[in-house]
């Protein structure tokens, strides 16, 4: 068999589930006795991703002790879990560089921004494609289920891991084979039934800011979402959380306290840490300070769990922040083709995230330009452009856009042009990539016009066409000055960055 990186990706991509089963799925009932052994449920929907992970790890040759020996910091949450995970890895790496331990760090995040191998990092570097392929085919050789196309009608052990489960298996395998001694592990979307929650004894567990997201899987309300996310808490592992806001229907922090108490732990809520550098672009906007504070607390809890006498130093903290990078999150990029065109990219994909993205964009453009605010509705003084796309059967893209439009209006960041697009990177000349109908496009138009009626609206069939349209708008303006916000999904931001970096 062809054992290239490209073939590995072909097999992994072929393991995607066509669509998520609903709560009434006939395949759900037989799984419950297996799933519920020693576990409670809260709004279980479909087949939990945790099912099968132990068996597949054993087939690959890894025991629970092998996983526990990775000395894991496990991170769940709604907003900022990727940034928090990356900060924690960076702090650990900075500490290890000074003291000699940890000697090698690992980071697993999801989803990727541009290339799939970005999900797995060793010592702050994305794993190279040769090792990615080599380690994948080690798994492939030990899991005969991967030798046939994914068939959801088969029992779960026979059908083998799905796409995300396979990525998690690959990450564990790589970290073990590479002798990593400190791993920061980000959950996919949930917690209790997430495939990453196969870890029995993490050293530290951390919950980032919670909000309404993945409601179809974890909901219907904040009580259920908090319950699921806190499923990563384990006996013997430090339990940490960002300070949480109360929901109308429940006290989120009380749910987390109760879940930690059930594991004989006391959850500690982490406020902003004053030791973080006062002036650091990596800590803007303010939410990044919260993420970094939680990551720093997790790092110190990890050092305590490992019995390290040396505390993390001010130099370690500064180095950890300075070397930290998380592309696609609050990222500012210059346009290589247009001198006075600046791109603002944030992969916000839920109501909480897009509101923060709007505030960030408004603050950045107000501070970094002499363009009038609010901007005139013409090309005479420059242009503010939004490129937006969000395609997800579990979220309402129209409602999400409405939240973004309202947040931008309230921040006085008025948009002159808005460009709606799809996830296709190039225009194939056929039907839109997601099959969105014209009435659905009109719903997006209507949602936008409620808050920002003066914008000119464009529809483009591909991300490449959307970028080209934005550039043309800037070039045709009198000032040739543009500020372009790209948000709505990581599947949009990644390809836009790839175009800008080409």
Automatic annotation (TrEMBL):
<comment type="similarity">
    <text>Belongs to the folylpolyglutamate synthase family.</text>
</comment>
<protein>
    <recommendedName>
        <fullName>tetrahydrofolate synthase</fullName>
        <ecNumber>6.3.2.17</ecNumber>
    </recommendedName>
</protein>
<dbReference type="GO" id="GO:0005739">
    <property type="term" value="C:mitochondrion"/>
</dbReference>
<keyword id="KW-0460">Magnesium</keyword>
<dbReference type="GO" id="GO:0005829">
    <property type="term" value="C:cytosol"/>
</dbReference>
<dbReference type="GO" id="GO:0005524">
    <property type="term" value="F:ATP binding"/>
</dbReference>
<keyword id="KW-0436">Ligase</keyword>
<keyword id="KW-0479">Metal-binding</keyword>
<dbReference type="InterPro" id="IPR001645">
    <property type="entry name" value="Folylpolyglutamate_synth"/>
</dbReference>
<dbReference type="GO" id="GO:0006730">
    <property type="term" value="P:one-carbon metabolic process"/>
</dbReference>
<keyword id="KW-0067">ATP-binding</keyword>
<keyword id="KW-0547">Nucleotide-binding</keyword>
<comment type="pathway">
    <text>Cofactor biosynthesis; tetrahydrofolylpolyglutamate biosynthesis.</text>
</comment>
<dbReference type="GO" id="GO:0046872">
    <property type="term" value="F:metal ion binding"/>
</dbReference>
<dbReference type="GO" id="GO:0004326">
    <property type="term" value="F:tetrahydrofolylpolyglutamate synthase activity"/>
</dbReference>
<dbReference type="InterPro" id="IPR036565">
    <property type="entry name" value="Mur-like_cat_sf"/>
</dbReference>
<keyword id="KW-0554">One-carbon metabolism</keyword>
<dbReference type="InterPro" id="IPR036615">
    <property type="entry name" value="Mur_ligase_C_dom_sf"/>
</dbReference>
């Amino acid at each position: 068999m062809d054992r290239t990186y490209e073939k590995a990706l072909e097999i992994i991509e072929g393991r995607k589930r066509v669509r998520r089963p609903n709560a009434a799925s006939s395949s759900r009932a037989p799984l419950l006795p297996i799933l519920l052994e020693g576990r409670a449920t809260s709004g279980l929907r479909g087949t939990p991703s945790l099912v099968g992970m132990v068996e597949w790890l054993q087939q690959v040759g890894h025991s629970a002790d092998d996983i526990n020996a990775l000395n894991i910091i496990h991170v769940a949450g709604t907003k900022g879990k990727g940034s928090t995970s990356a900060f924690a890895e960076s702090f650990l790496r900075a500490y290890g560089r000074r003291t000699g331990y940890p000697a090698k760090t690992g980071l697993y995040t999801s989803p990727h921004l541009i290339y799939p191998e970005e999900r797995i990092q060793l010592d702050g570097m994305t794993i190279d494609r040769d090792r990615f392929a080599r380690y994948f085919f080690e798994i492939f050789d030990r899991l005969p289920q991967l030798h046939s196309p994914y068939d959801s009608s088969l029992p779960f052990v026979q059908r083998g891991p799905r796409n995300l489960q396979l990525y998690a298996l690959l990450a564990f395998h790589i970290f073990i084979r590479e002798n990593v001694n400190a791993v920061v592990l980000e959950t996919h979307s949930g917690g209790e039934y997430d495939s990453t929650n196969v870890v029995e004894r993490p050293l530290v567990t951390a919950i980032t800011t919670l909000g309404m997201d993945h409601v179809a899987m974890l909901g219907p309300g904040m009580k259920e979402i908090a319950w699921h996310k806190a499923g990563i808490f384990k006996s013997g592992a430090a339990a940490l959380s960002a300070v949480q806001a109360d929901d109308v229907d429940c006290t989120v922090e009380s749910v987390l306290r109760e879940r930690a108490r059930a594991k004989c732990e006391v959850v500690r809520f982490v406020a902003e840490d004053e030791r973080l550098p006062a002036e650091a672009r990596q800590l803007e906007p303010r939410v990044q300070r919260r993420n970094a504070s939680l990551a720093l607390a997790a790092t110190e809890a990890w050092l305590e769990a490992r019995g390290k006498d040396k505390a993390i130093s001010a130099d370690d903290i500064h180095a950890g922040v300075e070397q930290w990078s998380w592309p696609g999150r609050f990222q500012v990029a210059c346009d290589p083709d247009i001198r006075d065109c600046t791109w603002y990219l944030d992969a916000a994909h839920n109501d909480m995230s897009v509101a923060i993205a709007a505030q960030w964009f408004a603050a950045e453009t107000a501070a970094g330009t002499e363009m009038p605010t609010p901007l005139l509705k013409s090309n005479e003084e420059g242009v503010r452009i939004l490129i937006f796309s969000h395609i997800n059967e579990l979220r309402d893209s129209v409602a999400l856009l409405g939240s973004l439009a309202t947040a931008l209006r309230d921040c006085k960041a008025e948009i002159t042009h808005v460009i709606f697009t799809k996830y296709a990177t190039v225009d194939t000349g056929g039907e839109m990539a997601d099959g969105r109908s014209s009435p659905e496009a009109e719903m997006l138009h209507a949602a936008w016009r409620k808050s920002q009626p003066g914008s000119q609206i464009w529809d483009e069939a591909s991300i490449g066409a959307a970028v080209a349209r934005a550039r043309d708008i800037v070039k045709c303006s009198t000032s040739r000055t543009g500020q372009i916000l790209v948000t709505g999904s990581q599947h949009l931001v990644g390809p836009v960055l790839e175009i800008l970096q080409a």
